[in-house]
Specification:
The chain has 180 residues and is mainly alpha-helical. It contains six helices and no strands. InterPro entries: DUF305_CopM-like, Ferritin-like.
Length: 180
Amino acid sequence: MRKTLTALLGASVLILAACGNDDTGAAHNDADVTFAQQMIPHHQQAIEMSELAETRAASPEVKDLAADIKGAQDPEIETMTGWLESWGEDLPGGSEHGGHDTSDTPGMMSEDEMAELEAASGAAFDRMFLTMMIEHHEGAIDMAKTEQEDGEYPDAIALAEEIEKTQSAEITTMNELLGS
């Protein structure tokens, strides 16, 4: 029994050491920080847009797509927040519609555009949501490509690759739903 307890304690210490020493201590650069600081509010706005679809969209396909977007981007926000915290970098602000100055982040919707989307419903909402989310995703893909080119932190580069792949596929789906 004592040997088992000692072995379990030893394993626990190794696991905790590994968790405390995860890859966030790896080299990162300004591009990695910028990627996370811009992508967090970008994802937050996509989630806000997706939450509007729950009650305003007419199409079940739009509602399903919105749920998929929200489901993918929530955990990515948590991951990027963890990176910034472990790097000792500032988290993005917490104001409305993504908490970020939209002027320097590709694909972000303005306050007016968000208000217009919020006021829409039914088929008009569906078309507006899909059109705006395509633009939003294109901005995320641009940021992801920049991270892949200029970033240093392996996990951030891997996330950027996944964002580019996933959101490119979602753009294809959205264009199909629009009949484009």
